Amino acid sequence: MSIWRQPTTIEALQARWGDSVNTLLDIEITEIGADFVKGVMPVDGRHVQPFGIIHGGVSVVLAETLGSLASMMACDPGFHAVGLEVNANHLRPNPKGGRAHGLCTPVRIGRSVHVWNIELRRDDGELFCVSRLTTAILERKASA
């Protein structure tokens, strides 16, 4: 049974990105499962710090992108998610030339707060970053 209350498609999600950081960093959603979202991002010159490994802030962008999309889809119609807090633990390097693979799963989907766990892995499957995103769930205000 799916947790998504506002299901969508990968194509629809990526079409909304336009001229954004997600496009700049070449983040791609690869799978939407019944209770998870997966994505991938290359690790090239746009993504690394001067020592040739992925920049921690770029890892957080990927994690927050996956968690925000998941939270949006898990909201009841008429509601939307806004970020409250994101953290990340950088466990090992992910060098230039590979990719970052993300898996986002729920920790808690409440009425007013969602918490998401995001694991980022290198091409060899090694975990290089774990992140947690908390979002507030707000009712959409009617347009004037």
From TrEMBL:
The keyword Hydrolase applies. Pfam families: 4HBT. Signal peptide: none annotated. InterPro entries: HotDog_dom_sf (IPR029069), PAAI_dom (IPR003736), Thioestr_dom (IPR006683). Keywords: Hydrolase. It comes from the Bacteria. Residues 51-129 form the Thioesterase domain. Belongs to the thioesterase PaaI family. PANTHER family: 1,4-DIHYDROXY-2-NAPHTHOYL-COA THIOESTERASE 1. This is Hotdog fold thioesterase.
